[in-house]
Amino acid sequence: MEVSREFKTLVRRLNEAELPRPFDEQEWLRSVVDGLEPSIRQGASEFVGRIVAAELEPADLQVLLDDAGSEYYVKEDGIRELFKILMAVL
């Protein structure tokens, strides 16, 4: 699956965002998403929706994050949850 331009933009913004202390993943993701332009948010939402619907394996999800330029490694048991949270906040 080719990574969309909008998803790459979202991941770049996540890379640039400071992690809050204490860390709340959903609030952090929401704060980054809220700063996206509407077209980027819509495109990222559509892409993440396709990813969630495809029920990809954790390793494949990490490859998508890597292909988008993510500086983060997400543990295998939490990566599906990350995409579900992204879908909820987008």
Low-confidence stretches: none
Radius of gyration: 12 Å
Instruction: Label the structural class.
Output: mainly alpha
Number of strand segments: 0
SSE pattern, N- to C-terminal: HHHHH
Q: Bin the strand percentage.
A: under 5%
Tally of separate helices: 5
User: What's the shape?
Assistant: globular
Distance between the termini: 20 Å
For the sheet with most strands, the description reads:
none
Portion of residues in helices?
A: over 70%
What's the topology here?
Layout: H1 5-16, H2 25-34, H3 38-54, H4 58-67, H5 76-89
Helix pairs in contact: 1-3, 2-5, 3-5, 4-5
Descriptive key words:
single chain, 90 residues, mainly alpha, globular
In short:
This protein has 5 helices and no strands. 70% of the residues lie in helices and 0% in strands.
Structure, described:
The chain is mainly alpha-helical. Helix content is 70%, strand content 0%. It is built from five helices and no strands. The chain has helices spanning 5-16, 25-34, 38-54, 58-67, 76-89. The protein is globular and about 30 Å long. The model has no long low-confidence stretch (mean pLDDT 92).
